[in-house]
């Protein structure tokens, strides 16, 4: 590689190349830590974040796997003494968004670690919000003879006819995030229904009665958001508050930073102003990304959080933490571990029982919902 190329190449890529060269040279022991973030940052004079990026990229490729508190190890599947077989070792993860969005990287990290210890690699495929691209990518993966499939669908349409092709070929499948009633597909989700209940219960406990659920996803097509809204409605009814059209606000346009931060009033900003005029005092957003945009839009148009509107999100992302947004914490690390456990069991025993796993969630109260209102006595 010439010096000019090295100057323009990102530092984490250069670290990856160095690590790969050491691996190919056999400069490691499977039983000892190959590297740590601290070690790499000191050796290459870079930040811990840059070192972590290099390690995470190699983990996602199945080359390294991490043991918490110890360091990163080289996958045994790279052993030169390993006997070549026709057994596929690649497990593919299909995502509707980038790995940097939300906390999905935590699930990827724990899943990669579980798989790598047994010699499996993880490949990641991002389809965006396109259902046709999901379908096309599934067809492509089926032709590549992968060992197993982890599928995070954008909407409830899981392209079952394509998944059946994997199933009949003996390729285990786990659906993540969206609940499916298909009895022969494994499913790992967080308890979205209880998350909606916890968010509503929290706001009711702060004295709010006029609470709205705000979503950019159509409920008819998105089971995770539908379950969150159902949990919200359950708590509202338990508090003696009858269903009202104002309780559900669906924003059909594609939401973005521009829609939130524009100095010329956007439909999104107008909707928030109208909600405030209609007496809404608190909002539960379908996820933290929507909560973040609501937070930014309110600040732009002069609505104060929490004085004018209290706000809750869902996912407990780093952004929600930095902005002080109350959120529902999902155990993404646990999701990765459960997915890995199910896949390895199915790969070992093709007749293993199908599993439907629902992981618990917890609310994390922050400044965005801590308005000084008198709590109501009729609701626990």
UniProtKB/TrEMBL annotation:
CDD domains: PBP1_LacI_sugar_binding-like, WHTH_GntR. One of its GO terms (molecular function) is DNA-binding transcription factor activity. The lineage of its organism: Bacteria, Bacillati, Bacillota, Clostridia, Lachnospirales. PANTHER family: LACI-RELATED TRANSCRIPTIONAL REPRESSOR, TRANSCRIPTIONAL REGULATORY PROTEIN. Keywords: DNA-binding, Transcription, Transcription regulation. SUPFAM superfamilies: Periplasmic binding protein-like I (SSF53822), Winged helix' DNA-binding domain (SSF46785). It comes from the Bacteria. This is Arabinose metabolism transcriptional repressor. Residues 9-77 form the HTH gntR-type domain. Signal peptide: none annotated. Gene3D superfamilies: 3.40.50.2300, Winged helix-like DNA-binding domain superfamily/Winged helix DNA-binding domain. The keyword DNA-binding applies. Pfam families: GntR, Peripla_BP_3. The gene is araR_2.
């Amino acid at each position: 590689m010439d010096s000019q190329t090295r100057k323009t190449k990102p530092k984490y890529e250069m670290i990856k190349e160095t690590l790969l060269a050491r691996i190919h040279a056999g400069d490691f022991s499977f039983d000892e830590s190959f590297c740590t973030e601290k070690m790499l940052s000191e050796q290459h004079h870079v930040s811990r974040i840059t070192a972590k990026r290099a390690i995470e990229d190699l983990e996602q490729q199945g080359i390294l796997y991490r043991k918490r508190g110890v360091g990163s190890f080289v996958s045994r599947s790279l052993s030169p003494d390993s006997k070549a077989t026709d057994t596929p070792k690649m497990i593919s993860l299909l995502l509707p968004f980038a790995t940097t969005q939300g906390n999905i990287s935590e699930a990827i990290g724990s899943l990669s670690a579980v798989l790598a210890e047994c010699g499996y690699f993880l490949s990641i495929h991002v389809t965006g919000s396109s259902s046709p691209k999901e379908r096309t990518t599934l067809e492509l993966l089926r032709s590549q003879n992968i060992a197993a499939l982890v599928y995070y669908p954008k909407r409830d349409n899981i392209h079952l006819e394509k998944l059946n092709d994997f199933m009949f070929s003996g390729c285990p499948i786990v659906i993540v995030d969206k609940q499916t009633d298909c009895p022969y597909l494994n499913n790992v989700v967080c308890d979205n229904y209880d998350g909606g209940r916890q968010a509503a219960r929290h706001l009711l406990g702060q004295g709010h009665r006029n609470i709205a659920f705000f979503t950019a996803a159509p409920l008819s097509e998105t089971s995770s958001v539908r379950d969150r809204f159902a949990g919200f409605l359950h708590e509202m009814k338990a508090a003696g508050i009858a269903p009202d059209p104002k309780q559900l606000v669906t924003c059909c346009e594609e939401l973005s930073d521009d829609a939130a931060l524009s100095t010329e009033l956007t439909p999104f900003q107008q909707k928030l102003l109208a909600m405030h005029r209609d007496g809404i005092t608190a909002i539960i957003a379908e996820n933290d990304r929507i909560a973040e945009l609501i937070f930014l839009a309110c600040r732009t148009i002069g609505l104060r959080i929490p004085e004018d509107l209290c706000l809750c999100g869902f996912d407990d992302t780093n952004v929600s933490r930095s902005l002080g947004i109350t959120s529902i914490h999902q155990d993404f690390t646990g999701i990765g571990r459960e997915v890995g456990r199910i896949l390895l069991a199915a790969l070992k025993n093709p007749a293993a029982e199908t599993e439907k796993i629902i992981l618990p969630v917890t609310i994390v109260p922050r400044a965005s919902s801590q308005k000084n209102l008198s709590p109501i006595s009729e609701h626990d």
